[in-house]
Design goal:
alpha/beta; three-stranded antiparallel β-sheet; 48% helix
Length: 392
């Protein structure tokens, strides 16, 4: 399978480039508009980027279709895209040493900012408030600015012993460690000898469950070489079945559509020798009791199998709505939290808030629409650094 990106002045132009290079059988997986940054955006038009995929043809066919000029253009485009991808690479894709250095640098920068703020205080204010309390308040405000709830921010700060007269860098390091501990141990999908492992994806509408399943399926199919099947119970949303079929056909994995709990049991029995079965459920409104019961019935129908549940929610959702969503699934135990769209928010406080509220473990985060690239294991060090370092 070949997955590539193409850019053009319009969607049609980008799609034509994809079809010209990959052939008429190419499937368009994603379309997005790329806007220029800085002052250049006032004078330059935005461009459109499409992600296309096609089953890989034989070498002889590829050579007949590609002229010498096309090969030169292909190499040039890949080099440009590689350079662009390298510049935009997500923090969680760096190695451990680079991440540690970046964390230390951001903590140092925050320490310098706070020191300047404290040095600018008036003498009479310094008489009324000791240095320790001012440091604690400034860090507390930093957490609140990143949308950590007041209750959670106070709980984290209250565990710092102010009587010890901590220096600012020691205070930041201590709070950083507290946040990492609060975020807890990450729990992700692990292959076992017990087959099949049935993985359910549940959650509200519009959070990107189907795209998330496609990303994870691609990784386990291509990187782990495991036998994988997909079952979809999302028969309510227009074109939902067709969307998951498109991804499944590219990956050469089977798809089953089910409408009730009995069909679910039959479908899983059909794939009982597979390593993984991903189940895409319909996006349910947390206000609809009947729809919630449908999800519960599907889950309860296969209790005898090795089962994992991932509650998929968006990092852009308001905290009070996230609370209502998690309350909806409070009768489902041992699920894992999967946050999407972290690239669409400047504050990651809700990841910490919901983790502390539910006590359920974090798992994956997604940061874009590209399949299979824009997903990764949740990086708690990166989140803690962002909460302390503020918005960039």
């Amino acid at each position: 399978m070949i997955i590539k990106k193409f850019q053009g002045a319009s969607e049609i132009e980008a799609i034509m480039k994809a079809k010209d290079e990959l052939g008429s059988n190419a499937v368009i997986m994603n379309v997005k508009e790329i806007k220029h940054k800085g002052l250049g955006k006032l004078f330059r038009k935005s461009i459109v980027e499409v992600t296309a995929a096609v089953d890989e043809p034989s070498e002889s066919v590829k050579e007949r279709k590609r002229t010498t000029a096309e090969r030169r253009e292909h190499i040039k485009r890949e080099a440009e895209m590689a350079a662009s991808d390298e510049r935009q690479e997500e923090p969680d894709k760096t190695n451990g040493e680079t991440k540690t250095s970046a964390i230390e640098e951001r903590l140092d920068n925050l320490a310098q900012i706070l020191e300047r703020q404290m040095s600018d205080a008036k003498p009479e204010e310094e008489e009324e408030q000791n240095t320790d309390s001012k440091m604690v308040k400034l860090v507390f405000d930093q957490l609140r600015n990143n949308e950590v709830t007041e209750e959670n921010a106070r709980e984290i700060m209250s565990e710092i012993d102010k009587k010890q007269g901590l220096q600012l860098d020691d205070l930041l390091a201590s709070i950083y460690q507290k946040i990492v501990l609060k975020l807890g141990q990450i729990r992700t999908i692990e292959l076992t000898e017990e087959k099949p492992k049935v993985v359910f994806f549940i959650g509200p509408t519009g959070v990107g469950k189907t795209t998330t399943i496609a990303k994870l399926a691609s990784k386990f199919k291509l990187e782990n070489k495991c036998r994988l099947a997909i079952i979809t119970a999302d028969t309510y949303r227009v074109a939902a079945v067709e969307q998951i079929r498109t991804y499944a056909n590219i990956l050469s994995v089977p798809v089953n559509v089910v409408y009730n709990a009995e069909e679910m049991k039959q479908a899983i029995e059909k794939y009982k020798d597979y390593d993984l079965i991903f189940v895409d459920t319909a996006g349910r409104s947390h206000k609809n009791e009947e729809q919630r019961e449908d999800v519960k019935n599907l889950l309860e129908s296969i209790q005898e199998y090795n089962r994992e549940i991932y509650l998929v929610v968006s990092a852009t959702t308001k905290y009070r709505d996230l609370v209502k969503i998690t309350q909806t699934y409070s009768d489902i135990s041992n699920y894992r939290l999967l946050f999407t769209k972290i690239d669409e928010t400047g504050a990651l406080g809700n990841l910490l808030n919901i983790r502390m509220l539910t006590k359920e473990p974090l798992s994956y985060t997604t940061f874009g629409q590209n399949v299979p690239d824009d997903i990764g294991v949740t990086d708690v060090q990166y989140i803690a650094k962002q909460l302390l370092g503020g918005n960039e």
